[in-house]
Design goal:
heterotetramer, A mainly alpha (about 180), B alpha/beta (about 300), C alpha/beta (about 675), D alpha/beta (about 150), A: about 180 residues, mainly alpha, Fumarate Reductase Iron-sulfur Protein, Chain B, domain 2, 2 domains, 10 helices, about 50% helix, elongated, C: about 675 residues, alpha/beta, five-stranded parallel β-sheet, 17 helices, about 25% strand, globular
Chain lengths: ~180, ~300, ~675, ~150
């Protein structure tokens, strides 16, 4: 049995303000809760909250619920919500902000492939300046769930035989120019 | 000879989306539009990066802008919708959020924000529509269309807030360009719905389901092929058709083409040079619609890795 | 410098306005400060200066302290300058020995830091005290009011205003752009919440207008030019030829029947293109005037000149049809104007994701109004374009309303008309009806009860802004239907609702030409483009231009009851002016000091009203103060400083500047 | 530049557009910087060259003129006259060594309450960058004599 009662002490209005002050975050407080975002989102039907309720959680300062949600990681950033929002709230950009915070706070769902891919991608690009799809997928799989590799074999072969899967590690010459600093 | 367009391939066009690059370069050659690849470009800092570390993501595209500025490109063509969006978003943020702008500038050493305004990030669809135009394309058409009906699939990111590739809710430019080469298109209500992007790799079932819906609706509208303008869309729609059949038992196989392949073919481009051999699904249709020339055969062998 | 004998005796009054001012400006300190200023004899602060006791304070002090100048630091002069000037008058002082300091709208409400706000207020009071010392006694001039009234727009607002005035014995010119009066209301079937038939309540008023001896009705006509000022407007009206003489026509309509077009081909504007009409037509059976009109765009005679002119034959010896008719210009004199130019509905094509114009079975609410209307294109049958009866209908609320991408305002009537249409469609077809809303707004007499009624009629209410209306199929049941995709925000999941018919509850927006009309009548528009009222609460039908009043949706979206009420109010305001017989104009006019004028004529070209003329004998310019509007442009232009403007004398403004800038 | 420098702006607002916009800003509780103090005139066309010079001479750091948008003047064309005069005075003050940014003309309609905030805040920022207007005795004298 899960408790459905929320105490006000669980809310963090200060955090809500911070989110609203991030670039792209302005407007969270003007949300009508009309649901146009969740209605148009191609993935909301798989999400635990969906964009509308994420905004509701943010506004009311329920930080933990928002950051540990699956919703933010299922967002494929197609920006459909953003262009449909009658208040022009940059929902996708807010999602990005929440993802970053979830990573920093290590609140993201464990063994959930999306954040892992993101991290691997990020690390790879920091190192080489470019991503090499093959190696990226490999590392992602190894860290999340190696068995998915079996599922991928057919596709992998298809790509290979059509010359679309290069095993080369892409790398730029001037790697020194790449952003160094690690995430806090 | 007009000034060369800067060309920012992005990672995908060197991998799974190589056919997009091949057809794009061929098409621009046929149109006598010079295209110069940005030297030592780096990852645009796309979706995944954004969700880890926004500032670095911006710094990444900042470097690309600096390169484009150095090479004094007025236009920078980004065929991958994700690259296109991220680059434009960076410009937008520099514009709208002085603080972010200052941070990015600072990170760029010399720190001049001019580099952001000087370059115009453009999508090939918009370049071909506005700089060349359906009329000119029709004039240059040498091959009549022998293929089936096509559903134009624009995908999401190129028509979204930071883009200006086409109208965001009901884009029509790809349809108009294809009409110019007499390729019959079908009305496609899902033309701006998301293909799931990288989800096919992470939350596989969900990602594949999205593409199943796209294929099914395209077929229902009588389409025999789908035209795309983004490497991720093409990959997702192309690579999982066998799997969809296994899962649903429905036969939805159809070729997933790049609109640049269709235009390039109409303008007389070589089959191999347009990357048709790189298709995974609908190879039979492709063989019929875009028949091989003897010369093509050899070229194709070499093209394989 | 103006000659002054004894030093003036100034009273300064600081208003708390409850906490509106006192909350941010230290009123006590301000009053104490004012007391220290030169010539200030009395300085007080009080809770509400505009209240009776507040005004009494001023009157007493004038008596007891022999004050001869008054400064009140309170709200905007646009709100209470008149109030306090009257107080001076009653207190036996010339009302123009007064200056008002705006420390509410322009200080306490716009600043947060109390010290800074108080500092600013102090500067402004100092400036006023210095200025007011130079004020001169002034008299208001009287301008006679022409008793006739112009009403622009023949919708329910214009009709009601015109009749009200006409019944009070005023002569009214009613100008309507369309060939008939009636406006949008004439298109409606029933009206919410009482469901009484629109025609039954409107058409009697329409014919009353036609037959009223005090109303000159010009339909198919437009105002093209407006000159003059309150009491004396000269208006030019262009009357388009309808090619049928209104006086000769008996309204038998045989000409229409006899038209060579056997079946109608032209899209019918009145029925929103849902039916066809002939080139010679009457908008709808109860149209006023009952006179057909020929549309030259489509009439063969006008296009090719080769028509049998069967209409002319049919008219016979009445000779009402004159195909050679020319546009006619009318020039009229009126004292006041009532603008009732109405609204237009939002163009649903601007929200492509709702499929209007793409899917034939997506309708706008106004189109459906015609469908349910017994005298409409289908005789009241609610059928789809392919003739089927809809089994399921989805009504999408807030289309082009409450949306930053289109219009941010709430159009106020959509909720109620959607409920009405839901009821009517259900009544006509027995269809299952879904309302998709963000919020249901029913704040009106009998409105909430109507909502209740609908709920018990088992109409579905789904709270969620519709994401899209589409034809892609995900479920076998959706084949051949339109699918409404929406998050049911109350049930908490996304739904796909297949329907046969979609009704878009499009919002109300300003007419496309509102900006031109506004310029022509020299009034303002609000940010959203509707005409701006003088004060949202205290002067809702007045504009900033005296003698020009607003009625109906040209001011903001509103329903029929509110429109009629506002039209009545506008008529009353006009009457108040007319019956007073005159208006007093502000005395802030300009005049030329003949001694100083060097006759350079610089000013002559400055005046937009041609109030300045040049007296050749004495070689000096003179201003006709009756014509002068008091803008002061000539004053600023005069190189020799010979022109002075009452209430805005150079010295007065210099003093104000000095006051603001003392101790910087 | 001294951080605590608070520029002083004399603002001439026309009665029908900009003054109403300032009122609207108030009724909408829009917050802006308190550095501008308003002198109400019936029309921006009334703003005399002397007013502007006097203001500078008396130590104003900036002068702001607010009128109706072109074509919207309550008196038909007063704002155009204001514009002409404004250009003239800008040149004049520049010759006197006063930066022309210190004199600003803005069209603000009765509906644009927020515009008042934007303009005033922006002008304050500009003036803070320029610093106080400390004219030489000689400039002041010249100003006074023209004013």
């Amino acid at each position: 049995m899960q408790r459905e009662l929320k105490f006000q002490r669980e809310a963090n209005p200060e955090w809500a303000r911070q989110v609203s002050e991030r670039p792209g975050g302005e407007g969270v407080f003007s949300c009508l809760q009309c649901g146009a975002c969740s209605g148009t989102c191609p993935l909301s039907i798989y999400m635990d909250f969906g964009p509308r309720r994420i905004i509701a959680l943010v506004r009311e300062g329920f930080r933990k619920d928002a950051l540990s949600s699956q919703t933010i990681w299922l967002c494929a950033s197609c920006y459909s919500c953003t262009v449909h929002c009658p208040r022009q709230i940059h929902i996708t950009d807010i999602m990005y902000g929440l993802k970053r915070e979830a990573i920093q706070e290590r609140l993201y769902p464990r063994r959930f492939a999306v954040p892992i891919l993101a991290q691997e991608f990020c690390a790879m690009v920091r190192r080489n300046g470019r991503s090499s799809e093959f190696w990226l997928v490999l590392r992602m799989a190894l860290r999340s769930n190696p068995f998915i590799l079996f599922g991928m074999m057919r596709t992998g072969w298809d790509l290979l035989r059509t010359g679309r899967l290069s095993l080369r590690r892409e790398r730029i010459r001037d790697v020194s120019a790449l952003p160094r600093q690690e995430v806090a | 000879m007009p000034a060369a367009y800067g060309y920012f391939p992005g990672c995908s066009l060197k991998g799974t989306g190589v056919a997009y690059e091949e057809s794009l370069l061929t098409l621009f050659r046929l149109l006598e539009l010079p295209l110069a690849e940005l030297d030592d470009w780096n990852c645009c800092g796309a979706t995944s990066y954004m969700s880890i570390d926004e500032r670095s993501a911006f710094q990444l595209s900042a470097r690309n802008f600096a390169l484009a500025h150095k090479a004094n490109h007025r236009d920078l063509i980004a065929p991958c919708s994700a690259c296109y969006l991220v680059l434009r978003k960076t410009q937008d943020y520099v514009e709208r959020y002085p603080q972010t702008g200052r941070e990015i500038a600072a990170s760029m050493g010399n720190g001049s924000l001019k580099v952001f305004q000087s370059v115009r990030v453009r999508h090939p669809l918009e370049v071909l529509y506005t700089d060349v135009g359906p009329g000119e394309i029709r004039k240059r058409m040498v091959r009549p269309w022998r293929g089936g009906r096509v559903a134009c699939y624009y995908g999401c990111q190129m028509v979204r807030p930071y883009g200006e590739a086409d109208r965001d809710h009901d884009p029509t430019r790809m349809d108009e360009l294809l009409a110019a080469v007499e390729a019959p298109t079908v009305p496609f209500s899902l033309k701006t719905k998301c293909c799931g992007g990288s989800l096919t790799g992470t939350t596989h079932e969900v990602g594949v389901r999205l593409n199943y819906i796209l294929l099914k609706e395209a077929a229902r509208k009588g389409a025999q092929a789908i035209a795309t303008a983004c490497p991720l869309c093409q990959y997702n729609l192309d690579a999982y058709q066998h799997e969809i059949r296994r899962a649903t038992g429905e036969r939805l196989e159809m070729p997933i083409l790049y609109f640049t392949q269709i235009l390039g073919w109409a303008l007389g481009g070589d089959r191999a040079a347009l990357g048709f051999q790189r298709a995974i699904s609908g190879r039979r249709e492709i063989a019929q619609w875009f028949p091989k020339s003897p010369a093509g055969k050899r070229a194709e062998k070499e093209a394989y890795v | 410098m103006s000659e002054r004998s004894a030093p003036v005796r100034i009273g300064v009054y600081t208003c708390h306005c409850g906490t509106n001012i006192a909350g941010t400006v230290d009123v006590k300190a301000l009053a104490e400060f004012a007391a220290t200023l030169p010539n200030v004899v009395v300085s007080r602060d009080y809770k509400y200066m505009c209240s009776d006791p507040g005004q009494d304070l001023i009157r007493q002090d004038i008596r007891e302290h022999a004050l001869d100048r008054i400064v009140v630091a309170s709200c905007s002069p646009h709100l209470h300058e008149h109030t306090f000037r009257t107080a001076l008058k009653v207190g036996g002082l010339n009302p123009y020995y007064f200056h008002m300091v705006n420390i509410r709208e322009q200080a306490s409400w716009v600043h947060e830091n109390k010290a800074q706000a108080t500092r600013k207020a102090r500067d402004l009071v100092r400036a006023a005290v210095r200025r007011v010392a130079f004020h001169q006694p002034l008299e208001r001039a009287r301008v006679a009011i022409h008793p006739d009234v112009l009403v622009v727009g023949g919708g329910i607002a214009g009709i009601h205003a015109a009749l009200t005035l006409a019944n009070a014995g005023k002569h009214v010119f009613l100008v309507e752009r369309e060939p008939t009066i009636g406006g949008h209301m004439a298109k409606f079937d029933k009206t919410f919440p009482t469901l009484d038939c629109a025609a039954c309540i409107l058409t009697p008023k329409m014919s009353a207008v036609r037959s009223h001896p005090n109303i000159t009705l010009w339909t198919y006509a437009e105002v093209t030019k407006v000159d003059g000022y309150v009491g004396n407007y000269q208006v030019r009206v262009l009357r388009h030829p309808r090619y049928i003489d209104e006086d000769l026509c008996s309204g038998c309509l045989e000409c229409i029947e006899s038209c060579v077009y056997k079946q109608a081909k032209v899209s019918d504007e009145f029925n929103m293109g849902l039916s066809r009409r002939r080139p010679i037509y009457i908008p709808f059976p109860q149209a006023v005037p009952q006179v057909p009109v020929i549309d030259p765009e489509t009439c063969i005679q006008f296009k090719s000149g080769k028509c049998k002119k069967t209409c002319v034959e049919a008219c016979g010896d009445r000779h009402a049809i004159n195909l050679a008719a020319e546009p006619k210009e009318e020039q009229i004199e009126v004292g006041t104007v009532i603008l009732a130019t109405g609204f237009q509905t939002f163009d649903a094509r601007r929200t492509p994701y709702y499929g209007y114009g793409q899917y034939p079975n997506v309708y706008t609410a106004l189109e459906v109004e015609r469908l349910v209307n017994a005298s409409g294109p289908t005789g009241g049958e609610v059928v789809l374009r392919d003739g089927r009866k809809p089994q399921t209908v989805g009504i999408v609320h807030c289309v082009g309303s409450r949306d930053e991408n289109t219009h941010r305002w709430c159009s106020r009537v959509c909720c109620m008309y959607s409920l009405k249409l839901a009821h009517l469609i259900k009544e006509h077809t027995g269809a299952e009806i879904f309302n998709f809303y963000i919020d249901i707004r029913t704040p009106g007499k009998g409105f909430e009860e109507f909502y209740q009624k609908l709920l018990t009629e088992h109409v579905h209410f789904i709270r969620g802004r519709v994401a899209e209306v589409t034809d892609w199929v995900l479920d076998p049941g959706e084949e051949g239907k339109l699918v409404i995709r929406v998050e049911d925000t109350l049930a908490g999941f996304v739904r796909r609702v297949p329907v046969d018919m979609v009704v878009l509850a499009t919002g109300l927006e300003p007419r496309a030409d509102a900006a031109d009309v506004r310029r022509m009548f020299n009034i303002s528009c609000g940010g959203e483009g509707f005409f701006l009222e003088r004060h949202p609460k205290l002067a809702p039908v007045n504009t900033f231009t005296d003698g020009i009043f607003l009625a109906g949706c040209c001011q903001a979206p509103k329903d029929i009851p509110d429109t009629v009420a506002q039209a009545g109010a506008a008529a009353a305001e006009a009457m108040a002016l007319i019956d007073a017989g005159y208006v007093e104009t502000e005395p802030n006019t300009a005049h030329v000091d003949q001694e100083v004028c060097c006759g350079c004529k610089t000013c002559n070209s400055m005046c937009p009203y041609h109030a300045i003329s040049f007296n050749a004998e004495v070689r000096k310019s003179v201003i006709n103060e009756a014509v002068c509007k008091g803008c002061g442009t000539c004053v600023a232009a005069c190189p020799s400083g010979a022109i002075r403007q009452n209430l805005f004398e150079d010295e007065e403004i210099f003093e104000e500047i000095e006051g603001i800038l003392t101790n910087v | 530049m001294s951080e605590d420098f608070e520029p002083k702006i004399v603002a001439f607002f026309c009665n029908w557009c900009t003054y109403l916009a300032a009122d609207l800003a108030g009724t909408s509780r829009i917050k802006y910087l308190p550095n501008a103090e308003v002198v109400r005139v019936m029309c921006s066309g009334r703003v005399d060259v002397q007013f502007i010079l006097k203001a500078f001479a008396r130590g104003a750091d900036g002068v702001l003129i607010g009128g109706c948008h072109p074509g919207d003047c309550h008196y038909q064309e007063g704002n155009y006259k204001a514009l002409r005069r404004f250009r003239l005075v800008q040149r004049l003050i520049e010759q006197m060594g006063i930066e022309k940014e210190r004199l600003r003309l803005e069209w603000i309609s009765a509906a644009e309450g927020d515009r008042v905030r934007v303009v005033i805040n922006d002008m304050v920022e500009t003036l803070k960058r320029l610093g106080p207007l400390n004219q030489t005795e000689e400039t002041r004298a010249r100003l006074m004599e023209v004013a």
